[in-house]
Amino acid sequence: MSRSRVPPILRPRLTPKYIASSVVAIYVLYCWLWGMPLLSSNLPAYTGPHSVGTIDIESPCDGRKTSDVKFKSNGQPAFLLETVLFSVYYPSIKGAKSDKPKHLWVPKPLSITAEGYAKFAHISNFLTNSIFTVALWGLAGSITIPANVDVPLREIAPSFEFTEHGAGKPEVGNDGFPVIVFSHGMASSRTDYTHFCGELASRGYIVAAIEHRDGSGPGSMVMDIDGSERAVYHFGLGDLDVDDSFDTPELKQAQLDFRQAEIEETVRVLKAINDGSGTAIYEMNPRKEGEHLASWEGKLDMTNVTMSGHSYGATGALQALKGAPCPERPFHGGLILDPGKSSGPLNHDVDVPVLVIHSNSWSKKHSVFFGRPHFDVVKDLVVDVNNRGKAAWFMTSLGTSHPSVTDAPLIEPMLLSWTTGSTIDVYDGVDVYVNVTEEFMIFQKAHRRTGLLALDVTHPDYDSSTNGTQEMPQAYQRYWQIHVAPEST
Ligand SMILES: *[C@@H]1O[C@H](CO)[C@@H](O)[C@H](O)[C@H]1NC(C)=O
Ligand SMILES: *[C@@H]1O[C@H](CO)[C@@H](O)[C@H](O)[C@H]1NC(C)=O
Ligand SMILES: *[C@@H]1O[C@H](CO)[C@@H](O)[C@H](O)[C@H]1NC(C)=O
Prior knowledge:
The structure is a single chain. The protein is of the alpha/beta class and 489 residues long. The chain has two domains: 46-101 and 146-484, Rossmann fold (3-Layer(aba) Sandwich), CATH 3.40.50.1820; 106-142, no CATH class. Helices cover 31% and strands 19% of the residues. It is built from twelve helices and 14 strands. A ten-stranded mixed sheet has the order 3-1-2-5-4-8-9-10-13-14, with helices on both faces. A two-stranded antiparallel ribbon has the order 6-7. Strand 8, helix 6 (312-320) and strand 9 (331-337) form a beta-alpha-beta unit. The longest helix is centred in the middle third of the chain and has 36 residues, at 248-283. The radius of gyration is 22 Å and the shape is globular. One 2-acetamido-2-deoxy-beta-D-glucopyranose is lined by residues 303-304, 332, 444-445, 447. The chain crosses the membrane at residues 20-39. One of its GO terms (molecular function) is 1-alkyl-2-acetylglycerophosphocholine esterase activity. Belongs to the serine esterase family. It comes from Aureobasidium pullulans.
């Protein structure tokens, strides 16, 4: 039989894509034969002192356009901001029961996410989309996020205390709950970092995790209060009606500008809630959540917000810090996790305290970034912030890999450690980030250096052959190397 008559799917070519699909197929078969669940773990409960609530908020944005680029297929604008969507995680009143079901980790309709991943793999067609949908359903379709949906926000203590591990609790006045805005990475969505966000909420923070509709995620449903829905999928240059002058860097910049607009809209909605418009936000929310938002009035510290992000989201967070704090972006601190290696230049113009953390694999893998080692570019950025008189840190969390702060390792620990080489316990992997984020919040709000942030530089350059230093408290030695820290006074 002539080789060309064999259907293409049966003609193996050893491309990375083919090998990856084969590995997944063998893994699925293995689990099935041995009667193992595809998922070894569900998402764990949060460990902080507060119960955790969550709300999806989608809010109209009067059609702001951040670029004139249109889709090839239908001539519609590619960067039109009709609504903004984010999940809020917050400390809820104790023992509050919800009559709404828990949120699914892969939002409905699941086929949008599946089709989006197929598009990422450049193999989207009816057959592959169906296979991806079934696979995703089997892998993650039943996972729920362990936060209670739409329960009331906790009463703020007369003087809000930060839960500082170990030592006493610093007094920071009664400004409302500290607010963190979080921006996700490439190929992700608002539900990919739920444990990090929910864990912070259990320790007293309000976290708004945005879902970006800039074409960098797998897929998202834009919903309007009139009931209309529009799916936004992953898109690339080939999907856009542009000439040769519009190249990949241009696309990245267009996406980052769109993300910045979404960040600003998120802030606008949170401010409206804090100013007493919670009922209006609820009534305009097509996702029909937020019934208690009226009682959130005055409970959010919207004058002193923290901007954070991971990967592409970290690059976007740095961009959003340009010119901050300002009314649209009232950010007084930045939490920057694995700033992108391929997401365009990093903004150095930062005038607020920042904590930049590299995962171990991000520091370990040497890569050239605009003609220089990526590590050096990030380090210089952090040094620049210190030189401007704002406190800035740069450190590597040992044993982690790029996805350690996401939910993926919690759900698929085996698969993730095989494929990414992380060696840290998966729960510790998220915990180290949450712990140091709390220390950063104490610094941003109370100007106190505690824990890891009270230490000096241990490793001006990353050193893959050692852990932290003997001088560090035991609890930090195996987890951290500090590359840049403010001068101790
Ligand atoms: C995070 O902080 C808690 C409270 O101090 C501590 O018990 C835990 O060991 C820390 N986690 C890690 C991974 O260092
Ligand atoms: C925000 O927090 C900083 C501490 O970093 C503090 O100095 C400042 O007064 C706060 N700003 C506002 C507007 O509350
Ligand atoms: C680093 O810490 C880990 C965990 O404590 C330990 O197993 C390893 O031997 C240490 N490595 C070095 C080079 O000290």
